[in-house]
What does this fold into?
Amino acid sequence: MDSVIDTEVVIIGNGPSAISLSYMLSGNWPYYTSQSHPNEYLHQRLIDDNVLNKSLVEQDLELLSDGLEGRSINKVSVLFDHLQHPEADFGVENPSTLEWRHRSDRAIDHVVIGKGLPGGAWHAMNDCKEILTISLGSWMQLPDMDIREWCSEHRRESRVSLSTVANYYHNYVKTKGLMKNFKHFSSVTSLQFDEKIEKYRIDGHDSNGNDFHYTSPRVVLATGNCDRVNRLEVPGEDLPFVLHSLNELETLISESKVRPTSDPILIIGAGLSAADAVIATRFRRVPTIHAFRRHPDDPSLIFNQLPENMYPEYHCVHSKMKGKFLSNCGYEPLAMHCVKEIKANKEVLLVNMIGVDDTQLTTYVKVKVSYVLVLIGMKPNLNFIKPKSLLSELGVKKRERINPRSNPIAINTYTHESLVSPGLYAMGPIVGDNFVRFVQGGALAITHHIHHQSHPSNQTLQ
It folds into this structure.
């Protein structure tokens, strides 16, 4: 009989969300530095005599979060971002107003279970040395370790490569002494609540086929949103020249399998990954056809939500998607088109979703390509949660699949605890926080809640 390990917290996933939480659970707590903050109302609450020498973990996060606005639906994520990146949404890179102190007496026993190296899905992009992050480099960093000081590239650009970020996250875990908490190359196969012992039971196996078993009163879902790629589900999608990741595109480019003289590469999708692919192919002057289902002016497109002064390269792609500046540029946009069939002879049939004349008759476009690159998003795999009835109740919309955009896991936004399963927490993309700068607020919320459950005598108004 395999042994069962009991621990205070089990974290499923080992990306930036899980790493941030592990750092805080290890007793590393954030403190306000008392320096002037652009938000005078927030500054005044933080320098109150009653809380000045207290960590944020010991304070009333609901009170501190009150009235703050930002690009997250989760209250503590917005609070943390205001303190870590003051006025970031205005394109300003102000220094952090937080400092970190180690409290060994407040460390909480935990384990982080991940399918690969620390950094999670970022390691799937470890070969992407030329594609840059959407976020500023400083927004990709984790608590108390400046990514630019660590980075050996010393780029002049404000952003860093995807491979740099992957290596930074792995190195962060080593540098901060967290490796002892991480169980690499391991997959969770079952998570369920055991009513007999009133704890969760977590079962799984590592890459060598060895089984493991944990019991814990608290489990954190930090699985991210990159378990499975979304597929077109059309004939021919499994042909060998049809790809589904930026990493595969980088390989094509590095091995010179696509060149300026090649047939066009067809890129499908209207998100940032598709834009990154367009930037990469056009940098190498590879002929590119870009097909996407929506109209370029659709307000839900991410390009229409990004400040142009901060993301000029993405707005350049967006302009081309609208049909601007296309003279002899080797790029052809096919707005409001979707793929109907991919043929073995590398011909792709696309359908115009609105037609081309007043009769609205369906029209088709046939293109000859060298490769097809499908970048239409990804989805989490939470099928290890048992029973299925629990999984179906976790979302904001009951009995619908968890989707970070349309159906995130329903949580208390001040604690990140599930609204339907006490002791089960969620953070990161599966609760709508898709940017690294916001996932750290989720780590603070969870650490805060666990600390006050463990030390009720220190309870704040929260």
Summary: The mean pLDDT is 87. The two ends are 43 Å apart (CA to CA). The longest helix spans residues 436-454.
